[in-house]
């Protein structure tokens, strides 16, 4: 049975050092330890895998990729990889991007069908091609040629939910938007090498071919080796029109701390949209080169996972009202 993010914490309670701290108003320092930060509570086992991978391989790029694999492979995470929500035609189309702060290289895939680890395909686009982004059939063909294994991504549970949704169309336009969760995971090793990745099945029941913010560099993720990294989750349309993650990194470049930068971008978006933040469903996290991390969001249930060599925990970032 899929576990929605709100129900996920219980299944994580066995993890050492897990704690949920209320309303984090300030960005926190982690010191000069490796640091991994990810969206939502399912980001916690992902970040732990990242730390473990870094300790074994010494590669921050492997750490980001294999950390995100954890969420992509978990059928209980109903918005990423296998078990992700399908589009309006019942097809799971995945989006992901990967970025290395040291080289400013990046790779991205959108609308990828039948491959369970879009983050790995995105990294391969970065490492094996002259391009940055591949979409749809071209992305799938590239994944095949690179030797990735195909897999059916639509679970029976998701198929049933989709059928139910379909039977109620046309939907009440005033109804709550479908669930929206994505993993954005950013990290830094002890030498200050920063990288990040973002992976999602996108908004449930999206129009076929719809691409959200998650695979868009500067939208759902941005990494700059001189400054830091930021990632996003929420309604992509409200993030990508403002280059949300890019805007956060640019504010941090001016010296702003991660939480203040996330908050400032949300406030800017709310001002321009002339809407209360609570109607936007946009949530951000960020780390900076000094080893500070932070986040802010408009959804009260938004959590971020923070893992360094001293602790692994969930935090409730600043709620922007
Ligand atoms: C999207 N931003 O496709 C993604 C969905 C999401 O948290 O984040 N959900 O718009």
Description of the structure:
The chain is an alpha+beta fold. It has a single domain, classed as Glutamine Phosphoribosylpyrophosphate, subunit 1, domain 1 (4-Layer Sandwich), CATH 3.60.20. The protein has nine helices and 15 strands. The strands form two sheets. It has a nine-stranded mixed sheet. The longest helix has 16 residues. The radius of gyration is 18 Å and the shape is globular. The two termini are 33 Å apart. The N terminus is likely disordered. N-hydroxy-L-asparagine binds next to strand 10.
Bound molecules: N-hydroxy-L-asparagine
CATH superfamily: (Glycosyl)asparaginase
- In spatial order, strands of the major sheet run 1-14-13-3-7-8-4-5-6
- Fill in the CATH topology: Glutamine Phosphoribosylpyrophosphate, subunit 1, domain 1
Number of domains: 1
Alpha plus pi helix count: 9
Number of strands: 15
What is the percentage of strand-forming residues? Answer: 15-25%
Which bin fits the share of residues in helices?
Answer: 25-40%
SSE succession = HEEEHHEEHEHHEEEEHHHEEEEE
- Given as residue ranges, the uncertain stretches (5+ residues, pLDDT < 50) are 1-26
Nearest-integer average pLDDT: 90
Overall form:
globular
- What's the CATH C level? Alpha Beta
Overall SS class: alpha+beta
CATH architecture assignment:
4-Layer Sandwich
Major sheet details: 9 strands, mixed
Oligomeric organization of the protein chains: single chain
Through-space gap between termini: 33 Å
């Amino acid at each position: 049975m899929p576990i929605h993010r709100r129900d996920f914490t219980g299944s994580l309670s066995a993890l050492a050092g897990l704690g949920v701290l209320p309303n984090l108003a300030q960005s926190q320092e982690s010191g000069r330890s490796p640091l991994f930060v990810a969206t939502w509570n399912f980001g916690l086992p992902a970040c732990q895998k990242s730390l473990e991978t870094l300790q074994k391989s010494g590669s921050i790029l492997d750490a980001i990729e294999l950390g995100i694999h954890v969420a992509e492979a978990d059928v209980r995470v109903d918005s990423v990889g296998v078990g992700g929500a399908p589009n309006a035609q019942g097809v799971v189309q995945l989006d992901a991007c990967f970025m290395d702060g040291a080289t400013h290289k990046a790779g991205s895939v959108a609308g990828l069908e039948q491959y369970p680890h879009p983050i790995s395909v995105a990294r391969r686009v970065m490492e094996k091609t002259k391009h940055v982004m591949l979409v749809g059939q071209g992305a799938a063909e590239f994944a095949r040629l690179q030797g990735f294994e195909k897999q059916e991504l639509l679970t029976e549970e998701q198929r049933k939910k989709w059928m139910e949704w379909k039977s109620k169309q046309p939907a009440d336009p005033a109804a709550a938007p479908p669930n929206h969760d994505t993993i954005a995971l950013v990290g830094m090793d002890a030498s200050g090498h920063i990288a990040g990745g973002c992976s999602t099945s996108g908004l449930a029941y999206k129009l076929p071919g719809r691409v959200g913010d998650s695979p868009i560099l500067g939208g759902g993720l941005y990494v700059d080796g001189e400054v830091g990294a930021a990632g996003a989750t929420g309604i992509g349309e409200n993030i990508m029109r403002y280059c949300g993650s890019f805007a956060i990194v640019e504010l941090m470049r001016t010296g702003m701390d991660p939480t203040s930068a996330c908050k400032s971008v949300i406030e800017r978006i709310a001002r321009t949209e002339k809407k209360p933040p609570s109607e936007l469903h946009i949530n951000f996290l960020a780390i900076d080169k000094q080893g500070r991390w932070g986040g802010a969001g408009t959804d009260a249930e938004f959590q971020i996972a923070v893992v360094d060599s001293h602790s692994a925990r969930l935090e409730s970032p600043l709620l922007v009202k």
